[in-house]
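Ticket #4471: structure output looks truncated?

Reporter: J.K.
Steps to reproduce: submitted the chain below (703 residues) through the standard prediction queue, then opened the result file.
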Amino acid sequence: MEQAADTSDWPTAEPTEAAVRSADEAGPRYVNRELSWLDFNERVLQLAEDERTHLLERAKFLAIYTTNLDEFFMVRVAGLHDQVDAGVDKRGHDGLTPREAIAGIAQRVTELDRRCSSLYEALRGELEDVGIRILACEDCSSEEIDELDRRFSQEIFPVLTPLAVGPGRPFPYISNLSLSLAVWLRDPVTHMETFARVKVPKEVLPRFIEIGKDTFVPLEHVIARHLGDLFPGMEIIRHSMFRVTRDADFTVSDEADDLLQAVEDELRRRRFGEVVRLEVGSDMDAELRERLVSWLDVEERQIYDVEGLLDFGDLWEIHGVEGHGDLRDEGWTPVPHPAFIDEEREETDVFEAIRAGDILVHHPYQSFAGSVERFVAQAVIDPNVLAIKLTVYRTSDDSSLVPSLIEAAERGKQAVCLVELKARFDERRNIGWARALEEAGAHVVHGLPGLKTHAKALLVVRREAGGVRHYVHVGTGNYHAVTARLYEDFGLFTTDPAITADVADLFNSLTGYARPRHHRKVLVAPSGLREGLLEQIQMCVDAVQAGQDARIVMKMNALVDRACIDALYDAAEAGVTVDLIVRGICCLLPTSDNMRVVSVVGRFLEHSRIYGFQRNGETRYFMGSADLMPRNLDTRVELLTPVEDPALKRELEDTLERTLADDTFGWELERDGSWTRRQGRTRSVHSELMERVTAAVASRDLE
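Returned output as attached by the reporter:
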């Protein structure tokens, strides 16, 4: 069995109690951010454990759990270690010091690691029952062994680089998230013993080597079988697996003369970040383990002993095995939005459709290619379009948006792209796009000093009979063609003069040198978004105190900001009904009967941010890029737009109510900080919304 890290010489913290400990004498009010994130990732793990989930989808969720956890250690845990190293021991709003938070994380992750290892073995057995085998070498037939040996000789051996440690051979650098074999060797002639490291090259080779139809062997098992070929003439005393996670966060000075070059330099330095986690096979020899710890200069609290396979993130390969459609969710193809369907024309005039009224698109239920990408494509070839302006935080190589902007620049239009070079883990791709845009003659800027630009906005300026008209798209998600098929997000198309003027002002403030003026309708961070939402919350409180009904409904990825949390507490205590849909981190506890917190984690990643305020029979909705976190509200450029069309407001309300009612992929937050999964399985927001948009298109076809 896997062993927990030794925590006898540093403060312990029971995760459940630690998560809700508070410095507030009135009782627990704030959940620890990191432990709340682990609650979210456990919900992902529960989907992998759920036998009612399709088998290959369970493997996918285990892979997602693992990659989520990797990023958590690279960024959040690394930050806590930085605080400890700096001597920070101040308690946060949750009542925990950084050292206590690390203790709680270690204890919790160790328990979750055990569940992952047990789950993998269970999944392996269930997959074998349906004909998908993941084998150890000793379980292979003689014919399969022959195939393994052939594959090793021809494909694997040539790319391996064994690195020994000894005189003149220092311990090699271990790159972030690399999987390695630690090998202990003896020279039978001199009897000298030494250590060697063999990197498992899963960046260039499949992690699971296919040796027959739906039969796989982990790459590290194949390498381990052939260690004698890598170290001829040496005795292999023992070997085991290990994996290193490094600090991958960094800060770039906005005073750098060349921000693009500064980000590139930091990307190179990221590879050499401090080790924050060392995963070792539970079968590793104690002496070998001790030496590895010494060479990597890690503390015992950073070590995680893992039973069996390390790094389940590569189970995506098994999820992608050909065939076996009955073991996956039924495929979904986004449908076109009815407003962009015109049976009398080969191509719908997107501008005409938007002029006819605001349009709300909902991805991945409705097509990203048939709405956002079509909007830009038409703008590029339209001779009356004067300018196209776009923010890029994350985008994909197969998206047409940036290439379309390049084409617009080549056609002589004003093409402006705000590329956020500091979008974590997408920096390299964004650097490539920035250079391509500049080479095409587009105007490329990188935002305001000290702020990340996270707003999702697209502006088209078009010459028309009455003058110049602005067309705007404001989204809750990135302009990313791949995630638009996986993430749930909303986008609003509008020609509303106030909203489009606000977005135009925002672009000017981002590209020029000016302070943004007072916004007419939108809320923008960091200059007033928090204040605008707090004002809406207070108006709901005022309505209740005036004897009116009031309700707050919010949907977001994370709720961390203390001012917003306190305002929601006050609203619930005043009698306002507060319904919150929080997919990930939630630092609030439902301390009142008027407050409910729901999380939906399922087929699609719930990613949209919607803020609704109902009072005296009227409802105001805002949607956009901002979660309620200090980083979003204080150190990012964020944008929320109102949704004012009555039909679109009803659509948002319908989506929120379906999400709150989901009892298939829904969890509820209890007052003690625990999450309880609903068991009804009578409603699934994802299934219902797929049916809703399909029915809308069918209804249009019948007209």
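Triage note (M.O.): checked the attachment and the full token line is present. Residues 133 and 215 are 5 Å apart (CA to CA).
Status: closed, working as intended.
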